[in-house]
């Protein structure tokens, strides 16, 4: 069977749950060796064990625990990935948090920015340094942004600026890193059912309302992001850089 990422090495932050986990599993199915970052605690260790079990025997998969909010975590993640697999071809900046809160409520901005934006910046920077060393081979960097980068949300005033920042970061990195054959693109998920929004969507009325706004009439699932992430990582998108790919079931264009 032909695989789209055969022989490639990928590193994914925040990849033992949700979207990151789905991308990791699909990258493995497509022939890549995969390193995943996760928060260093026993719960995440257990989640990685379950990921490894699902990946199956023989999967080229390692975990590099670390708090992505710390600038050194990205460098350590990239270094250990290269030490294990020899190089880095694909980097997915996925780790993030989202807590709904009123704009005038107690402060959430600093912690959200430190994880979602600053953590992504330093991790992407570390990946880019490694890929520059590999030039002209280069690589693909994917930032997981959000439909929230393009629309407002009353309960997301501390979150939406960070996701707009990821989109902008990928656009600017596409300009800065293009000469080294490093492509940079953003994935913009719509409403995807993950652990981040389970509590919010537990309300049947809220869930029905959200589904009604989506032309495909369903909430997204983490695996819905896996195919687009493979596309942006593979040679199928060899002339795609600085792009934003909405994966939202049509929600953004539905103004009804």
Automatic annotation (TrEMBL):
Keywords: NADP, Oxidoreductase, Rhamnose metabolism. GO terms for biological process: fatty acid biosynthetic process; rhamnose catabolic process. It comes from the Eukaryota. InterPro entries: NAD(P)-bd_dom_sf (IPR036291), SDR_fam (IPR002347). GO terms for molecular function: oxidoreductase activity, acting on the CH-OH group of donors, NAD or NADP as acceptor; quinone binding. Belongs to the short-chain dehydrogenases/reductases (SDR) family. This is NAD(P)-binding protein. The lineage of its organism: Eukaryota, Fungi, Dikarya, Ascomycota, Pezizomycotina.
């Amino acid at each position: 069977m032909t695989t789209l990422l055969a022989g490639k090495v990928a590193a994914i932050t925040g990849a033992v749950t949700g979207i990151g986990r789905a991308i990791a599993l699909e990258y493995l199915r497509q022939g890549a060796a995969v390193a995943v970052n996760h928060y260093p605690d026993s719960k995440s260790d257990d989640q990685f064990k379950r990921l490894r079990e699902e990946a199956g025997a023989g999967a080229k998969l390692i975990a590099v625990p670390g708090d992505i909010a710390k600038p050194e975590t990205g460098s350590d993640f990239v270094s250990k990935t290269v030490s294990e697999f020899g190089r880095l071809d694909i980097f997915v900046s996925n780790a993030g948090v989202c807590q709904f809160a009123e704009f005038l409520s107690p402060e959430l901005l600093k912690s959200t920015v430190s994880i979602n934006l600053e953590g992504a910046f330093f991790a992407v920077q570390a990946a880019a340094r490694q890929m520059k060393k590999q030039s002209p081979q280069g690589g693909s960097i994917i930032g997981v942004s959000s439909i929230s980068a393009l629309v407002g949300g009353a309960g997301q005033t501390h979150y939406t600026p960070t996701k707009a920042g990821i989109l902008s970061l990928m656009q600017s990195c596409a300009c800065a890193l293009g000469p080294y054959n490093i492509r940079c693109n953003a994935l913009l998920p719509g409403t995807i059912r993950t652990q981040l929004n389970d509590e919010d969507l537990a309300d049947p009325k809220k869930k029905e309302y959200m589904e009604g706004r989506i032309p495909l009439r369903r909430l997204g699932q983490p695996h819905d992001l896996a195919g687009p992430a493979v596309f942006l990582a593979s040679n199928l998108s060899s002339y795609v850089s600085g792009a934003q790919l909405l994966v939202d079931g049509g929600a953004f264009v539905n103004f009804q």
